[in-house]
Fold this sequence. Notes:
Layout: E1 5-9, E2 16-21, H1 25-41, H2 44-60, H3 62-73, H4 77-101, E3 105-108, E4 114-121, E5 124-128, H5 136-148, E6 151-155, H6 161-173, E7 181-183, H7 188-195, E8 202-206, H8 209-219, E9 226-230, E10 235-239, H9 245-257, E11 267-273, H10 277-289, H11 310-325, E12 329-332, E13 347-350, E14 366-372, H12 375-382, E15 390-394, H13 398-407, E16 412-415, E17 427-428, E18 440-441, H14 444-448, E19 449-456
Parallel strand pairs: 5-6, 5-8, 6-7, 8-9, 10-11, 10-15, 11-14, 13-14, 15-16
Antiparallel strand pairs: 1-2, 3-4, 4-19, 12-13, 17-18
Helix pairs in contact: 2-4, 2-5, 2-6, 3-4, 3-6, 4-5, 9-10
Amino acid sequence: MSASELLSFEPATNAELWRGQSGDVDAEVAIARQSWANWASRPLAYRTEALRRFANVVRRRADAFADLIARETGKPLWEAHTEVETVIAKVDISVKAYAERTAQRRLDAPMGSRIALRHKPHGVLAVLGPYNFPAHLPNGHIVPALLAGNAVVFKPSEKTPAVGQFLVSCFHESGVPEGCVRLLLGGPDEGKALAAHDGIDGLLFTGSARTGIALNRAFASRPEKILALEMGGNNPIVVWESPDVHAAAVIIAQSAFMSAGQRCTAARRLIVDEGVHDQLIDTLNTLVGRMIVDEPHAAPAPFMGPVIDNDSADMLSESFLELMIRGGRPIRHLERPKAGLPFLLPAMIDTTDMAERPDIELFGPILQVIRAKTFEDAIAEANNTRYGLSATLLSQNPALYDQFWANARAGIVNWNKPTNGASSGAPFGGIGWSGNHRPSAYYAADYCAYPVVSSEAEQARASIGVGLRDA
């Protein structure tokens, strides 16, 4: 394998899935720069129609797309189908959001003139995509960027290049100009080069906090370039005065273990009233023990598949061991049922008595359990993180939710719903180490175009009424 060659393997089988070559950053940016102005000059209706054709292409190729996502990520086939559906739905959502968030406005002004508000595209936007939702999450940047009139250079994760290539092929098949959606294959070096390239006008990133913070530092001296960051979370789910223990257990399991815990909104910390701790944990433990963990196409359908690769599985195993060494008490150990493959069984560990709980995002099926004496203690523990993406309260007491909503430090605050599964019809983003106050999803239109305010009159009329000598 040459230095420029990329390989992708199926996590569930370790079979080779895809092989290709790393791309040329300069060449891809140059093509996008040559193409974007013509695309931007097209009427909005033209760009909208092209993206609606893209949705139809994806709809027609949905089964093949879902199969590829399942194979390359390891997620169950049913979950891969839901990802394809979100790709399709993103077009209509983005059209509606663009009309609402960037609508043209006219205001009356003195002397028969007017003030006009319109929006312009930035130019060329780079998109760095993650591996956990390799189609949905980059598509959530690409569609609104194209709709606004930008060109895009998209670098998928080196762990899911095949899905990235498939997604771009759907744009090209739909008639979106090939120069306006460029695929840059490669690893971290290509990603760094793209982010630092003078030819881009902005970067839209979804990934780890470590990478996002490095990008934030790099862009600090480049205020002329837009930077939108979505960087995950160490998300809490608090259970207080929630008498339906089974329903609570189901919501917790969905929050913590959907997608093998590889969601930025996954619940990482369960904070529970110590008075009802035992009953809830017993119910949750029984439910988790029934979860099917298997390859994507297995029958019966699995609840979750493997994590993305053996390196990730090894890191998670080491992290679980570190929690034990620091004083955590395992409730359900993190087991690897298939030698040589990155399957992990969902794990839970009580970290209440740890002197210092590490504030990190364990991107996998590990749930920390923390017992609290009072609801105020539970809120304080929920906020005991540098992250701030998602937080959930499970309670039948509305007053507690009012208190939780007012005090929880997160961009998504839910009540009796999972921490994950955010709506694309709403803004999506967090605070602290979870983002830089540029939420995506419905608000992606905000960072894909900038407002231009114009004072306008059909003819020039002006006078100076003070401060002049007599003629």
